What we know:
The chain has a single domain (about 1-65), classed as Lyase 2-enoyl-coa Hydratase, Chain  A, domain 2 (Orthogonal Bundle). Helix content is about 75%, strand content about 0%. The protein contains 3 helices and no strands.
Amino acid sequence: QLEDTVVEWCKIMQQRSPLALRMIKRCLNAELDGQHGLMQLAGDATLMYYLTEEAQEGKRAFLEKRAPDFKQYPKFP
């Protein structure tokens, strides 16, 4: 029964966002892996940010020598 449950969970996880799963794994491992785990988490978080439209707006603004327009993006505390 355990193996069937594990296979079922794996099938569910295969349908989820690979980046979200990667970030969850990094977050869970960060504490146990110490400095190395925190560095991996920070690297993945940075990669994730640079893939966003918000980061692309910052890049475009820099290349166009103008102030970025971040008003359309939500602000979180």
